[in-house]
Amino acid sequence: MAAITLNRVVKTYDNGFVAVKGIDLHIKDKEFMVMVGPSGCGKTTTLRMIAGLEEVSDGDLMIADRRVNDVEPKDRDIAMVFQNYALYPHMSVYENMAFGLKLRKMPRAEIHARIEEAARMLSLQSQLEKKPKQLSGGQRQRVALGRAIVRHPKVFLFDEPLSNLDAKLRGEMRYELKTLQQRLQTTMVYVTHDQIEAMTLGDRITVMSHGEIQQVAAPTIIYDFPFNRFVAAFIGSPGMNFLPGRLVQDGDAWWFALAGGARVRMDMAERSRFAEHAGKDLVLGVRPEHLAHGGFVTAAPSATTVGMTVRVVELMGDHQYVYLALSGQDQPVVMKCNSHHRCTVGQQIQVHCDAAPAHVFASTDEHAKNITLPKDFPQIHA
């Protein structure tokens, strides 16, 4: 078993800066956990504490039910893959992969068997005699993975390993990493600032901001039920539309009155907290795919139609992003729709806004809570 548990873990540097602020996190055995957030949020510091490369200032760090706060990195039975590969340029691929095993004085036959096994997994059999400078970026990253795999560790740690690769290679390596985890059945912790990597790789995602955990859940939960506005903004490409306004009640119906005078009917399942927030400055969050071009699509029963002006159109192949101007809103509203739903810059169109899957956030603060979640909805470990 190689579960990882952080209990109120804090990291404070000598200058007094608190990089990680008492986080609680449980990573299950054999889980692929992705830690995501903007630069400076504390995700890499947390990973380095798990690795033993940073000291834990306070709290308890457990790996496989063993407290490892004071255990040396070499004794934690973990393997780390870095962003810059960290390969020895004067050694062959084989020698790079064998180096750590030789330091542990492992028998030569066992070293060879492990390298052959890892090379087969990573399609490196024909590259074993080459030096790193003779390899492509993707091949170098495979060597770094192979060097970790041959150790048979309890835990793999990844520090933005794909950030130096081009878009095509990143896509290929995401697939390889996911299939590798399924084959090895080993706990993996992966740090990235790329929310696409987080969504595609993780069994669960930990979203961090300013040294604190904002939400931990499966990718679909994170996307469909963000705990607060920060999570809603960070996960999704393009991001969620945020429209300031206020909740108003009209008979039995609730409406969201936008700053420019338009209103959107709040036809959604969870409305229990609307009354306590009525009249306050709030933010309506709507994802681009929940807007539809009224000239081509019939409005859903839960949708409200609002007039908007086309400002920019981005064709993406089978779909397009249409940037729209809405009266009273400073930021453009982004709609994702079929690329055949033609519109031109300057055109006035009717947009169906489906509020059933939308969200209302308690204020304009970036960490404002989502008031359209059930009251008992868990922030952690959903």
Global morphology: elongated
Q: What characterizes the major β-sheet?
A: 6 strands, mixed
Distance between the terminal alpha carbons, to the nearest Å?
Answer: 22 Å
- Rg is 25 Å
User: Could you estimate the helical fraction of the residues in percent?
Assistant: 10-25%
* Strand tally: 20
SSE sequence, one letter per element = EEEHEEEHHHEHEHEEHHEEEHEEEEEEE
How many DSSP helices?
Answer: 9
Structural class: alpha+beta
Tell me the quaternary state.
single chain
Low-confidence stretches: none
What fraction strand? 25-35%
- The overall pLDDT, averaged over residues, is 92
Strand neighbour order, sheet with most strands: 6-7-8-3-9-10
3D structure, described in words:
The protein has 382 residues and is α+β, with helices and mostly antiparallel strands. Strand 12 and strand 13 form a beta hairpin. The chain is 23% helix and 32% strand. The chain has a six-stranded mixed β-sheet with strand order 6-7-8-3-9-10, sandwiched between helices. A five-stranded antiparallel β-sheet has the order 13-12-11-14-20. The model has no long low-confidence stretch (mean pLDDT 92). Helix 3 crosses helix 4. The protein contains nine helices and 20 strands.
